Amino acid sequence: MGKLYFYYSAMNAGKSTTLLQSAHNYHERGMSTLLFCPQIDDRFGAPAINSRLGLKGKAILFDGEFDFYSYVENVLEKKTRTGRARGSGQLALRQHGF
Q: What predicted TM-score, i.e. pTM, was given to this entire model?
């Protein structure tokens, strides 16, 4: 079973850095991550999560109508069909920078 983590804190507290570091650590262990950011956050052009330290990660944009459950279900189904699923190592992370 995958997990959803939600971090919140004051600005400049390192939320994005922690998120990208966690995603990197999961990838090193052969696990997958999904990074989401709100569609209204267009500060960086392409859908991405950026930290002040220069770390960057591709993100999936979402809006008020986005169905997280269906999206993750489709990703897991696709990975299972292609043989790329690895146990319960799926992790969905959400970053919110407002």
A: 0.73
